[in-house]
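Title: Comparing notes on inverse folding

I've been comparing how different people in this forum approach sequence design from structure. To keep things fair, I'm posting one structure and asking everyone to reply with a full sequence. Here's the target:
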């Protein structure tokens, strides 16, 4: 058989074993997060590396609270269940528009065009998440001395976003794995 093991124990491979990750993901045999972890690893990004961390899309725009339970639903900032408004972000139920990069959503098409026009070679993607952004993302779990060495010498807690939503509003960059998996 196709099993592995010895000593009378056979461990069968999981469904899709041996197929390339893209095929496994298309068949639903890999979660989106697992697939993105594999893509980041293939690109040489390493968890915990502030110079080249894995990047993941922000899944929510924080416009409403998303209930991920099987019953689902959303609430507005005041806690009203099923809240909706005419804004495009609310029409997505709090899910972020993944048809556009976070950079495009934050900076706009004109800035994206300028980035393309002045890059060598021309491209739309700005630099990967820089060490400064990665450090601000992780500010709540890093020693103050480290924040002083990377961000600024005079530490003022009010200079850092006070919530994940404020962080999302502040940054033109995508998220890192720390927002999706415990470290």
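Reply #1:
Here's my take.
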């Amino acid at each position: 058989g196709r099993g592995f093991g010895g000593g009378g124990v056979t461990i069968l491979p999981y469904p899709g074993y041996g197929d390339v990750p893209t095929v496994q993901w298309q068949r639903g045999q890999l979660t989106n997060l697992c697939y993105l972890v594999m893509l980041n690893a293939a690109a040489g990004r390493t968890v915990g590396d502030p110079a080249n961390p894995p990047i993941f899309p922000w899944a929510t725009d924080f416009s409403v609270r998303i209930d991920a339970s099987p019953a689902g639903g959303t609430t507005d900032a005041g806690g009203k269940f099923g809240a909706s408004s005419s804004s495009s972000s609310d029409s997505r139920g709090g899910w972020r528009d993944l048809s556009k990069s976070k950079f495009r959503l934050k900076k706009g098409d004109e800035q994206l065009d300028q980035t393309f026009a002045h890059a060598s070679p021309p491209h739309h993607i700005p630099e990967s998440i820089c060490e400064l952004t990665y450090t601000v993302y992780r500010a709540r779990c890093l020693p103050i001395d480290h924040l002083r060495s990377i961000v600024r010498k005079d530490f003022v807690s009010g200079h850092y976003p006070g919530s994940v939503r404020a962080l999302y509003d502040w940054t033109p960059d995508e998220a890192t794995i720390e927002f999706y998996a415990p470290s």
